[in-house]
Amino acid sequence: MSTVFLNGEYLPKDEAKISVDDRGFLFADGVYEVTPFYAGVPFHLERHLDRLRRGLAWMRIDFDVESLVEVHERLLDENGVRDAESSLVYLQITRGVAPRSHPFPAEPVEPTVYAFAKAWTRPSDETWEKGYTAITIPDRRWTRVDVKTIALLPNVFAYQAAVDAGVTDAIQVRDGIALEGAHNNFFGVFDGTVVTHPKTNVILPGVTRSVVLELAAANGIPVEERPIQVEELPHADELFFTGTSSEVRPTVEVDGRKVGDGKPGPVTRALSKAFMKEVERMKGIPRG
């Protein structure tokens, strides 16, 4: 039985109870964050916490996230995944418990804070070399995608569409623009230039996305942040996704059409290699 964190306590998962009046349950009124760890070392935890702070501020949920650093560390130890090659901590904060009414509670209530840790398995080299497949689907999300809320039903349906189609990812398209995946950011490579949608309200600014953009610049790979027209996809040299568990994931087929030569391309390879070097660099940084 795994150990979870709930409102200041570490307890067995089957003993963790949340009120049916919690606004996360009733309204999806909350935010979440997922932070990867490699060999027990967090990957840019502060960037994840910064995004969480911004989300909480926009949601007008008052909570000091500094205490959560220790929560992440202890959950790794409590669940025996400190030495796992790769693990993650999922964290969710809702507005709290109050009688069901659409406006915020008239009197302040304590936010509900829940977190758990688990190991996850990185793809094998063989799987990565084969590449991944995707479909395009309509983007049915709301207009504040940049806030990492727990209201993920459109993402669930997007991911299920990919599963039903027998592919790995779904590229969400709005007004003819290929925005991002169901749970990750989306990139194209055109004539050697890495292209991805700019940071606006219609994409979630991923931590891995920001790291990869920095790595591209550091390695002399041209970058352009602009909308990608869906009509451009057949002409892309390479396509890839980035995310906490996606890392840098090559896409070799979209809607049944081969991308480039149907293999992971040189720019995607270079960025994936640079990403793993960044992982190793962070693992070497002294802790505490």
Protein architecture, described:
By secondary structure, the chain is an alpha+beta fold. It folds into two domains: 117 residues, D-amino Acid Aminotransferase, Chain A, domain 1, CATH 3.30.470; 158 residues, Alpha-Beta Barrel (D-amino Acid Aminotransferase, Chain A, domain 2). It has seven helices and 16 strands. The strands form two sheets. Strands 7, 8, 9, 10, 11, 12, 13, 14, 15 and 16 form a ten-stranded mixed β-sheet that branches. A hairpin with a 2-residue loop joins strand 8 and strand 9. The radius of gyration is 20 Å and the shape is globular. The two termini are 29 Å apart.
Major sheet attributes:
10 strands, mixed
Classification by helices and strands: alpha+beta
What is the percentage of strand-forming residues?
A: 25-35%
Low-confidence stretches: none
Question: What order do the SSEs take from the amino end to the carboxyl end, as H and E?
Answer: EEHEEHHEEHEHEEEEHEEEEEH
Number of strands: 16
CATH A-level architecture of the largest domain: Alpha-Beta Barrel
